[in-house]
Design a protein that fits this description.
InterPro entries: NA-bd_OB-fold. This protein is mainly β. The longest helix has 13 residues. It is globular, with a radius of gyration of 22 Å.
């Protein structure tokens, strides 16, 4: 084992994600400290996925040592290899899919912070019972019609857990994590940032490392030409409602609906900011994660 120093914010984001999901990485084009005791990761360091024959080790961890994610924090972290401790509130009927090769049911699960739908697949289905508390590992976040849900994976593990506090959780105790709020404001007070980014043409997730001609997706590990990856905009802005400042984020699709079509590769961020700042009498609907779901004038 060797210590490392990371001086690159973009590389740190990659390493944090891989550490959380226990995915190995291969680091090249790095340097070392003067005393040769630490690896130094900087902006020119390359972080890639190793081939299976390059990994001579396996990471293992007790189920009890898995880092738990509460349901209200799902939007903050990685979308794979998630561990939750929850109570099963409701189990739906089991359905056959894929020409009856697979089986799935929708379960409503909850912890002290929220509730969410969990797609339960195949062998895990018989192991779940309503009104019992479980620790579930290796879950993934998925979206259906814009609604966040969780799903089990081939690596998911389940363990019944004793937790008196969760045992008392009921549907009436939970605030809907997808709850939306609508308000009307005279204008946008300020623009915090307008960010341009590329999305992978394969998995549609944000590309973290962008090079001149070729990009390597750090989520699905596909390599592709940069020109095949669409450019998107994300705007963070501030509005004031009832003397309270709200920090909201708006995605590219809503921005184009509001301002009209534009070329994200060539559009001037200052032009976008000017158009937004001079909008009047705006109606905004946003989620409890402060993401705008609708904006009209």
């Amino acid at each position: 084992m060797q210590e490392a120093l990371c001086y690159s914010p973009s590389k740190r984001a990659i390493l944090v994600e891989k550490e959380a999901s226990r995915i190995p990485v291969k680091i090249t084009r790095y340097t070392k400290t003067a005393d040769l005791t630490k690896v130094v990761v900087n902006d020119i360091t390359q972080i890639t996925a190793p081939n299976s024959f390059e990994c001579s080790f396996q990471f293992s961890q007790d189920l009890s040592q898995q880092k738990l994610t509460t349901l209200d924090k799902l939007h903050e972290g990685p979308e794979d290899n998630i561990t939750v401790k929850c109570k099963v509130l409701k189990l739906g009927p089991t359905k056959a899919v894929g020409q009856a090769k697979y089986h799935v049911l929708n379960a409503t699960i909850a912890d002290a912070t929220g509730q969410i739908v969990l797609d339960v697949w195949n062998d895990i289905i018989p192991n779940l019972q309503e009104n019992k508390v479980y620790t579930l590992t290796h879950l993934s976040v998925r979206y259906w019609n814009g609604i966040r849900k969780l799903t089990t994976t081939n690596n998911s593990l389940i363990s019944e857990t004793q937790d008196p506090a969760l045992q008392n959780v009921t549907l009436q105790d939970i605030v809907d994590p997808q709850q939306e709020t609508t308000l009307k404001v005279p204008n946008i007070e300020s623009i915090k940032s307008i960010e341009k980014f590329k999305i992978c043409c394969h998995c549609l997730k944000r590309i973290i490392q962008v090079t001149e001609n070729i990009v390597n997706c750090d989520h699905c590990h596909h390599k592709m030409r940069t020109s095949t990856c669409a450019t998107k905009l994300s705007v963070s802005f501030v509005v004031t409602h009832e003397d309270k400042k709200l920090y909201l984020t708006m995605r590219d699709e809503l921005l184009q609906q509001l301002l009209g079509p534009y070329n994200a590769d060539t559009v001037d961020s200052n032009d976008i900011a000017e158009k937004l700042l001079f909008l009047n009498n705006i109606t905004i609907t946003y989620t409890n994660t402060n993401k705008v779901s609708s904006i009209t004038m």
